[in-house]
Amino acid sequence: GQNIDQPTEMTATEGAIVQINCTYQTSGFNGLFWYQQHAGEAPTFLSYNVLDGLEEKGRFSSFLSRSKGYSYLLLKELQMKDSASYLCAVTDSNYQLIWGAGTKLIIKP
Amino acid sequence: ETGVTQTPRHLVMGMTNKKSLKCEQHLGHNAMYWYKQSAKKPLELMFVYNFKEQTENNSVPSRFSPECPNSSHLFLHLHTLQPEDSALYLCASSQEGGQGHQPQHFGDGTRLSIL
Description:
The structure holds 2 protein chains of 2 kinds. By secondary structure, chain A is an all-beta fold. Chain A has strands at 3-5, 9-13, 18-25, 32-37, 44-49, 53-57, 60-65, 70-75, 84-91, 97-99, 103-108.
């Protein structure tokens, strides 16, 4: 079966750095997405990786290793507004999006 | 503002009621999606419409009936729901369905509670 694994919950301190991991086992691979979802709000697109390596966008970076079936989202200089759930999703060989259950990130002052 | 608007935001209904959820996108996209989001579970894809044609029905019970009159509007008609159907229902759109690199844009969802 197809599976996306990410931690259920993480806690970090304001101003610090946090890395949210995502591992996947899917039938084929056509890209990996990260979304942010604040409580009661829509998921919003953060990043897309299809090639190995690191993609940086301001305070957020996303890394992909296709050979390891592994990605991480790196958040730097954490702010209280970064408290949210972070969803990892992989596009399989049929271009279907397979979703993880999300990681709830709690930022403490 | 994501460009995708869902109404109502909250809905409480009895198991014998009939109601509809509405989604409208202002992004000029050609694909629209319905998802079910339950606590601590992955998003469950329910239906996909690409250029107004249904291209995906993920074994969804017939008590959920989608309708896509045009590329900008999507409805989910609800009838005789069960308590386990209580969840957040999310609508999304993308430029075109079946394109692995295109992100989906989501609405804020309808929080549905079945009594």
